[in-house]
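Quick look at the format.
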Amino acid sequence: MIKIWITSQQLMELFLSSLLHLLCGFYICSSAVAGDLSKALTEFFHKPNTNVEVKGDRDPNSLDLPPIVLVHGIFGFGPYGKGVRPKVSIFLISALNFNIILLWWFPRGLGGLSHFLVAEKKGQRVLVPDLGSLTSVYDRARELFYYLKGGHVDYGEEHSKDCGHSQFGRIYERGHYPEWDEGHPVHFVGYSAGAQVVRVLQQMLADKAFKGYENTSENWVLSITSQSGAMNGTTRTYIHGMQAENGRKMTPICLLQLFRIGVIIYDWFDISWLKNFYNFGFDHFNMTREEIGICGLVQCLLGHAGPFASGDWILPDLTIQGSIRTNYHLHTFPNTYYFSYATRRSWQIMGITIHSSIPRVHPLLYLGVLQMRQWRLPPYVSSPYKGYRDEDWHDNDGTLNTISMTHPRFPVEHPSHSLEKGSEFQPLQPGIWYYKLVEGDHTPFIANEKAGAQFDLIYDTIFERCRKYVVLRKKPPIVDNNVHH
């Protein structure tokens, strides 16, 4: 009887949560479509002069600058620069939604990318890869390498067999930076889950993990900047349905289960115009109706096949346990500069929760922050690491916990130093994570219309800092960062 009561409560909670997300999805879709129609009509009746050249302070030596590569987080930015409106495709996400806090900003456009668009027009050599939106950190890192170097994406024979997908993915006929090597390094800026992707890629370069590229090294990377980076996981994964016991599987009744079913069916139908419009990145799992048929679809839905069965997708990597498993193999290297910006929307004073800039916070964001502060590790679950305390994970930005964003902490803490106001341009040392706490939610780095001048200055700082380190440093003695196992 008690089990029936608990199950009924879970189903009711799931129903209400799903209804809320679906209503938000329709709101976002209708707002985005209305905005696009309005803009299209305006452009039709008032055609802009396309012959006017946009003049900026373009650097004539821009081709000599190391590229700045922006790596997206979960769900991606959409087909950047291809004329497709990523904000409309967010309806597919919001209807099944995991990252609910993005919803309020997308109808107003992907404003944060304007920083990179302006920089690109000025010759700053900015690259914005469109990687798998839901694929694992490992798979994304492999895709990012071939995006830059070019060639046939190789996920690795052993990994592919273990995870049940094809060894090879998309083909880049020509890389976006084919000369990439130690003499032609790059700067990486990783947003959210993208921060962990670039860390994994740097470790792969150090381990010479790419077949046919035996000369790779960690020195192919000049700097890594993390923007609200998920370096130590997030408790939101458990709120949406990941099991707190090990962070690998989903609970039987949760929002993520509905999301899983939607993604599988979406990929199975394989409608070309929809896939061109938005792709979850699971093409290498070959889940289309032509390839697996009805029987294969049933196997995927039952959890016996596909990315959700093998765990080779992004959510397990974003749990605390999953991040620890990843961090166990990652190093902070002595020749690379590391920076991070950690966002938060709440803190606690004398037992009272204070939320910053409440009038500027959308109700969905406000609920997200409160929800994460209220989450507790179940008493029957063992601690994910020695010394775990719930209160350490209370501060958050609605999607990630602030403790996760400053620098790699678990299972072993990497060298770090907090930056005080105005100290960003002081002499800094490679091999140390310099971090700064910023008041804001999880969206301003990519959707900045409500972010204000603070985030404009942060972007200016990032670009100026990257251009400061355009020459590879002389190699200092290799030091032990206390992360060797």
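Next, a different chain entirely:
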Amino acid sequence: MLHRSIKRNHTVNKKSAQIHELIFLTLTVRSIESSRSEPEMEVVVDSTPQTSSFATENQSSVTAIVVRLIKESLSSILTRFHAGYFRISLSLGGQALLWKTLIGPTDDRSTLRDVLHMLHPTAFLVLWSFALFTLVLLSLLYILRCLFYFKMVKAEFLHHVGVNYLFAPWISWLLLLQSAPFVSPKTTCYLVLWWFFAVPVVALDVKLYGQWFTKGKKFLSTVANPTSQISVIGNLVGAQAAANMGWKESAVCLFSLGMVHYLVLLVTLYQRFSGSDRLPAMLRPVFFLFFAAPSVASLAWESITGAFDTGSKMLFFLSLFLFTSLVCRPALFRRSMRRFNVAWWAYSFPLTVLALASTEYAEEVKGSIAHILMLLLLALSVLVSLGLTVFTLLNTKMLLPDNDPIAASLHHLPTVSA
């Protein structure tokens, strides 16, 4: 019985094992079929939005950096820029007027004038356009300075040198107006532009000349320096432009206003009162303004009278004497010539108006000595202007130095109204 019981248990265990194996196989088959019937899931990682967002943020940061650099650069330019940079436009405007006179109609039949008349008018047009572009650029910069740094402009008005260069933009525009190839002096456009440029000169006259004899700290004996003659030149250039369009009375008014103050100023500068000699060595080239004023006066008087008469000749000889006196003293300018700066442009305009006056003198007297003098001054004027243009283009990084005597002093002046 024991043997039968063991055999029966073995049979049951074997059948139980077969049943378990059958169940396992059934579940395996169903699992395989279920996995085949279900769709496969595909996982796709899309990195496009992240890449696009990163590129946008990068582009925005680059734009912000560029804008910030532009603002910092413009701020640096405007804080160092001042009206003294209009020396450049003064020189170029004077050159444009000189060459318009040389290629214009004349009674002088000398060989030199015949050669100059052979020059193509396009060369003069290029020169005038370049002078106009320079003046427009400088004017835009100064307008921005007035808008964003008006306190510095007010401080410039209180500066004994800087205030005189506030005349320079208007003088430059008057010179370009007289030399314009497409505006006749008899037109309404010329008249309107003359008023627009001459009125600020008279307004500055009232303010500046009134200070010379009414305010103790602004007495002429304490603030006079060679740049003070720019105010005189402004009146004389305005008189010349008025005479060209036939306004004789206005021309005589401006001429008398300029000449009376020129005589007072010349005597004051000759006497060299204590406290008046406050001109930095870097600004020594402005001494050439000593002969610029009588040169412009001779041209203005010629425009008023219609001839280069005795009065114009006397003023021309005075300017020629002052020019010779300065040329014979090169040590006076030695320190200012050690390194290029924008003050060098103060050499060009006086030489240009002296050459222009010599041209009118040579046309009047028609002598060989006068023509030789004209040739020498003309060559010197052109060479100096051309050399300064080349130096400026090659040394653009030195146009706004940290040691500019005018710009540096403006940061230490009070900004109250004068």
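The longest helix spans residues 2-37.

See the schema section for token definitions.
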